[in-house]
Design goal:
8 helices, Tetrahydropterin Synthase, Chain A, three-stranded antiparallel β-sheet
Length: 292
């Protein structure tokens, strides 16, 4: 009985020591085995692994692709048009031993702080070597690739691999927005004024051409009308002349009746004539000849 009581704590301690010497490496992580702060083993394959209890410790690092948002920074392109750039990067830890040596106990937080410095410096350098139009155009894809390529070498010293760098947002500084909007508005108003002036000029030309065409058409129409009227008058006079020459007496009678009809109307029924006037000859005789 005494022997069992003595062996039980030993068994428990031995079991605890065995369990504390076993650890599991997840497929999503890498692990370092440290002994008094010094790296003695690297576990990159998933599964069971062993360490010396109490003497060695395990530090785990994420083996997945990580994202890091870079705080907005202000850059000045070649045309001195300041821009606020918001970027992010995707990276992963490729060398956990170098990563541990570079950041120590700071881990991911310390690494991301140093990664921010690298990306901000490269972003300022690359975007400062081009114009703002290049940054705002489709050429920004090539600029992002240049930032990534330049940052890869420096990040390698941290045990990191930069997979991608993207510019999420590129805007003007807040204090420059109002001035820029006013300048854009003034530019648009100037263009609108120029367009209206050109439109008015074109309208004046069209209106002048239309007025000229109207005058020409009316003049030509009047000329044609006068020609037609003259030809009609000539035809009428010719007809009257033929009729008169064919029967002068009848023609004289017809003209007298027409004169009676036009003069003796309700609005003009009073006439003052001398008794011997020739106007009423056909009312006195059937031949229209004056009485002897």
């Amino acid at each position: 009985m005494k022997k069992s009581a003595f062996l039980l704590p030993i068994v428990v301690l031995a079991l605890a020591g065995v369990l504390s010497s076993i650890f599991i490496v997840d497929e999503r992580e890498k692990a370092l085995v440290l002994q008094f702060g010094r790296v003695v083993d690297i576990k990159e394959d998933p599964g069971l692994a062993f360490k010396i209890p109490l003497i060695q410790e395990v530090v785990r690092y994420d083996d997945r692709i990580l994202s890091r948002d870079v705080d907005p920074l202000e850059v000045t392109p070649l045309d001195d048009r300041r821009l606020v750039v918001d970027a992010f990067a995707r990276y992963r830890i490729t060398d956990v031993n170098r990563f541990r040596q570079a950041v120590g106990v700071g881990g991911i937080a310390a690494a991301e702080s140093r990664l921010d410095s690298i990306l901000r410096a490269e972003t300022r350098e690359i975007l400062g070597s081009v114009s703002s139009n290049d940054i705002l155009s489709s050429d920004r894809a090539a600029l992002m690739l240049r930032i990534r390529n330049n940052a890869i070498f420096e990040a390698r010293a941290l045990g990191l691999e930069i997979i991608d760098v993207r510019l999420k947002r590129t805007d003007l500084p807040e204090e420059n927005l109002d001035a820029t909007f006013e300048r854009m508005r003034a530019e648009r108003e100037r263009e609108a004024t120029d367009e209206r002036a050109r439109g008015n000029e074109a309208a004046q030309r069209v209106r002048a051409q239309a007025d000229r065409t109207v005058v020409e058409l009316v003049s030509d129409a009047n000329r044609q009308a006068e020609i037609t009227r003259g030809e009609a008058d000539a035809n009428r006079n010719a007809i009257f002349a033929d009729a008169f020459s064919a029967d002068p007496e009848f023609f004289e009678f017809y003209r007298s009746l027409t004169a009676y009809q036009r003069s003796l109307q309700g609005s003009n029924s009073t006439m003052i004539l001398s008794p011997d006037s020739d106007f009423f000859n056909y009312l006195k005789t059937d031949t229209g000849q004056p009485l002897q």
